[in-house]
Amino acid sequence: MGETYMTEEYRKLLGAAGYHELALGIRYGILGDWEDGELPLPDLTEGELEERTDKFWNLLKKPQPGGMGLFEMQKRLRLSEKELYVVFLAALWWIHDGFWPLLMKMGAKGPGISLEHSRLLMEMAEKRLGESAVFDAGRMRRLALFDACTKTWLRLDGIMSAHFAFGEPAPLWWRMGTRWFCPKEKTEEVAGTRRKEFVSRLAKYLEGGRGPLFLTGETGSGRRFLIKQAARLLDKNLLFVSLTPKLLEESGLAGIIVREALLFQGWPVIVCTGESQEEAGLLQELAYQCRMEGLPLIVIGHGEQGLSDKNGLGLLAEVPGLYGGERLRLWKIMSSHLQFASDVSMEELADRYVLLPGQIRSILDLAKKQADFMQSAVIDRRLLFSCCHRYLRQSLGGKAVQVPVRFSWEDLLLEKKQKDKLRRAENQIRFSGQVFEEWGLAEKQPYGHGVSLVFSGPPGTGKTMAAQVLAGRIGMELYRVELPAVVSKYIGETEKNLNEIFEHAKKAQVVLFFDEADVLFGKRTDVRDSNDKYSNMEAAFLLQKMESYNGVTILATNFLRNMDEAFKRRIRYLVEFPFPDRYWRMEIWKRAFPERLPLKPDIDLEFMAASFELSGAGIRNVVLEAAFLAAAEKEAVGMPQLVQAAKGELEKNGKTMAPEDFGPYAMYLDGADNSLGAV
Length: 679
Description:
about 675 residues; alpha/beta; Rossmann fold; Helicase, Ruva Protein, domain 3; 5 domains; six-stranded mixed sheet; elongated
């Protein structure tokens, strides 16, 4: 075998566990003259090989420079001297080809020993240590010290053989989805009193050496981080093992994990998905072996995975959520190495987005990459919010469509009373973390922490615009849910669709805008048949989801009077959007023209507001149509185009206008008809 070298990092790790000294001792002790460190490849007789083996065995009984070597392994695995000697002899194949003649005598035809001839190992052990020496073959197999691939063949486990051969077992082991954690590693501090108390309880439970610990929580909730903090309190190493499909194919995996945990003087932490029977079987075996070896088993997942330690269920511990103040501390801790523009407020981010620790880190990493790409030294508010939206954006099951947020408070023309309701809704969203969590109102009101609104009014009166304004003010994306497309005639399908929408919205942190809610929220009828019964159940289900959703939901209806009074009481804010009177129509007309739109000086907005009863959307449609007419005629927008466009909009809405209704501008109607006829 040629010499191989390790990385400095792994060399330190093996040194801490005794492997480094053991491998050096084997190479420089058995072969040749260990006093001068030469490594010849002599053709030794069987007797000379046995003599050198005995010399090295005796040499290793003494403390080795820098560690205990082989006997440190014995102590950590709790092996008897006889068990250790058999492991030592079985490792000779991997030490040097000079030992092969001795192994060939035992029946070896490759890296291993036939069981029929492996008795020689026992004979050599008994010859030196006595027949009464303890040898627990079952435990050695359980710890996967030997890999019995067939009924007639015995060989040293591949990872163990790599340790002995002074190769590099780290890449092999790490490819299998494992990571070590030492309590001296530098990590971030725990944010929040509740999570610190949670870590203390974890440490106390693990220190007692009780049954398995099932640590649950969403991906990114900090499960690995918190268990590391508990291990730090106890000064314990951890062996993290992610159960990948490839790793689950490994023979004797449970024994390998337990053995490596013992050698590393750590505790196994199994990261699983709970999606396969192989995982469940492995965890059952690990629970048994850890109990036999006095090790706590820690399982990270999304539940108990249906497992027990065969003496009852272990502890199920769910990672606590984060209050607004705790999220704020996490934002500050995780972003301490970044530079932000003056318009960035960590308080605003913590209040607005209910994010997990892993999500916060991912968003900050994304923002840093984007800033570097744009060659910006700082991260501004727009970029940071964009990264939040990009990370959280979901398709919402294809049942909702994103609505661009383009309007502001100045664009929204409502009476002060209605605007005040919208501002109060905005304040509840902004300060929900402070009021419910920091001030303790969540204890008095266990559900309904989100904001629910009903926008009622005729079509075109600004309900969708108000939803855009509110979403823009709180910095969230707006998704419109078309209820007619969600409601299904099949029993249970509507609830399924609604549940899917709210689950996606919970992850994406968006404002849900349910348009045309009348299809679901008509007055409850007497239950005459199953259709009436299930219609009421669907409406109740939507309200239940709205109350449990901690975000913002808006229902838009054209007829508030048709909504059941019991449903209205469960809505936080009712905002009416009346059809605009002459005064409000005038205000809308004044703001309907962009600055770059060419206008004739004869435009009579007073006449347009007084003569034509149009909604805000109707007025915008008239301006748009007039602009196209003017563009086709290659002139600025004037009263001819506005009158013609208004006539078309009113007819579209089913209103018939007589020529005298157009007053002094009726002259333009014939021109409009002639123009259309020419086309």
